[in-house]
Amino acid sequence: MSFREFLNLETGLDLPTVTLPELLERHVPLSREILPRLGGRVLDRFGAYLDHGVYPFYREGVELFPIRLANVVEKVVSDDIPSVLGVRPGSVPSLRKLLHLVASSEPFTPNIERIASALGVSRPSVYQYLDHLHSAGVLALIPARRRGRKTARKPARINLDNPNLFPALVGHAESRERVGTIREAFFGRQAGSLGSLSTAARADFVLPTGQVVEVGGASKTARQLTGEPDGWLALDDLEVGEGRRVPLWLFGFLY
Predict the structure, then answer these.
(1) In which region does residue 228 sit, left (phi positive, over 0), alpha (psi from -120 to 50) or beta (all else)?
(2) For a designed S-S bond to 146, which of 33, 45, 64, 150 qualifies (C-beta 3.0 to 4.6 A apart)?
(3) How much is the average pLDDT of 211-233?
(4) What is the reported pTM?
(5) Pairing assessment for the beta strands 245-247 and 231-235 based on DSSP bridges
């Protein structure tokens, strides 16, 4: 679910989607329209969504949700990928190890040679495993933007597909140390609904429509957007933004 869908499920409201142009141009009035409908606060609900709100089965029990989600991921890796994508069962331990490597890292910039060495497999196998985990909805692979806004084929950054996967795979204690990575996973999942994302030389994301976005906390500055005429900040811990400082949670209304 998107953050918007989570809010509707939790509150019984019918909050509508917003388009990207509307979000960027009208994010201040949009925030001020939405907040009163949520009792004037949204950040607590946003934290709940990051923890457990992506998959509707959290409603069957929040405390057991990480365990259940971890079991789902294990089934995907050990059963679904081999049966659907034709991966040899002997490759499953390498898939697990690769997934844990990404989950336990800061925003992961891949070194394929080192990954291959750590897994004891070939470079082509690493690329194959990454593609399989991406196709299964477990990993997000973000290529680099090149000149002319073309993108490279190899991933420049790898992250988990969505923020709920962090506590499920590495536990709540360790996931609390991955705040920046979790924010990026949220943004990538929500903005990915617009099309394929890429990374800029210094900023986190380039949207399919060309805007460059840096994700961070409320104190984040625009330094990394220097030289980007259409640069924006998507900021956590912020209920209402200003100028090109947009609340991160509002990107959860894109679908």
Answers:
(1) beta
(2) 150
(3) 95
(4) 0.94
(5) parallel
